[in-house]
Amino acid sequence: MLYSEEKERENRFAIALKIVFPFFLLIIIFVYAFKLFTHSIPTFILLTLLIPIYVYYIFYLIYNGFRNTLIDSVTKAFTRKQIIKIIEKIKPKKAYQLVLLHVDNIGDINERYGVINGDKVLKNIIVEFNAFLTHQHFKNTPIGRCGGGNFLVMIRHHEKELSHLLTRFQKEMKHKGINDIEVKIDFVIVSADYDHDIAVSIERLYILLEESKKCEAPLNIKPNEFEFIVNEALCQNNIVFKYQPALCLESREINLFEVLPKLQTKEHGMLSKTQIERIVNYGGYEKIFDEKIISLLLDEVKPFLNQKSLISIDISAVTLRNTRFKPFISTLFREKKIDPHHFIFEITEKNSYEDMGRFREILLSYKAMGFKIALGDFGGNNASVEYIKQLPIDIIKFDIEFTKKIDDEIHAKVFQHYIHLAHDLGIQTMAKFIDKEALFDKIKAFNLDFIQGFYISKPKKLEEILV
């Protein structure tokens, strides 16, 4: 039995006592009332009124008990509210670690096997995890569900040793699965005394979880401080641009430049867009961020644009779908007297947008203004293949996996197939991360339109490109 189930049983037993004790008290009152007082009508009415009051009291306790249950109905782990209460009560926190256990493929499980089986998998994972911890001599470990496939765990142990143990559990689950269903588990750890505000510690865990899936190392900045740093940099226009050139294989000229914006901060130097992405998304100012970048970018590149120049900038698909963004862009380009035909908006989305018809209309409206649309990380673990079927795309930029595995026969065949498909659809193609001459020669044989990477040029400031 889970520790959370034991606490819930105690909670319900306490409710039962609250119900039973007044019942016996009511009987005693009735007995003594009839012995001590005359059998008058007022006395009888007053005593009778105690019955509906008691019934109401019972129903209130039962209703309140179910409403304020300590455990999640699906997994039987503590609810989010309860696990946070438990964490806040534990003193001292210095000896404890806060763990975020994440079932990475729960979305796929729900889609493939159904939500009911998905719920069973989550419950069994927690049962297995609790048994694993008990076997490792961790007793009464509080485990709480934060939503979806995310669980908070409070454990008293050294971080390195705990990380080793959790890695063992991670591998065990991957090897044996749950009910013949493959399970992928990730975890991240922070010290329980990371911040006095538990919400900040939890947000830090989610940031670490996201950063663990990226190439860049996570920044050791508290989320609330991080948000202030990002906001301050945006307000002060502390954005620095570098441009990575791409070679056009047909003309043998460099006329396409990918914009790489970075935030200049006092405390932490340059921060890339991927490093601040979660803060921007979490704060709900993707549109503001993209507007700021484009405004400053236009001021910088306007004097140097020529007839053949193409500027590619990564922009949030959420921003493009925002109804207020298009009027902003239209006004901005008109006031600055810049031709949109010089600009490519690059989008990348993990999951397909549900209203594809609306998204198509939105992109067509940008194309009517003169902008080109590019798909980033094409062929990777994202919605790019679905998007190429339904959206008006001009350029696809292949995922780094194709560059890394170009010597693998299957990857090479898929790569070539995608290139032929794109060209048949009238879409240009680009390979990135080409850093050596040998790799350049191999990639060039696939007849792409553009090649980008350190072999062509490292990212440069605008003045360096002009020189």
Q: What features would you describe in this structure?
A:
The chain has helices spanning 3-36, 41-67, 80-89, 106-113, 115-135, 159-176, 198-211, 223-235, 273-283, 286-301, 317-321, 325-336, 356-369, 384-390, 400-404, 409-424, 437-444, 462-466; strands at residues 96-103, 143-147, 150-156, 185-191, 239-248, 253-265, 269-272, 310-314, 343-347, 372-378, 395-398, 428-431, 450-452. The protein is an alpha/beta fold and 467 residues long. The chain folds into three domains: 3-67; 80-211, Reverse transcriptase/Diguanylate cyclase domain (Alpha-Beta Plaits, 2-Layer Sandwich); 223-466, EAL domain (TIM Barrel). The chain has an eight-stranded mixed β-barrel, surrounded by six helices. It has a four-stranded antiparallel sheet with strand order 2-3-1-4, with helices on both faces. Helix 1 runs antiparallel to helix 2. The mean pLDDT is 87.
Taking the alpha carbons of the first and last residues, their distance comes to 71 Å
Poorly predicted ranges (pLDDT <50, ≥5 residues)?
none
Largest sheet: 8 strands, mixed, barrel
CATH class of the largest domain reads Alpha Beta
- Give the number of domains: 3
- Give the C-alpha Rg: 30 Å
**Strand adjacency order, main sheet:** 5-6-8-9-10-11-12-13
Q: Can you say what the CATH homologous superfamily of the largest domain is?
A: EAL domain
How many E-type strands?
13
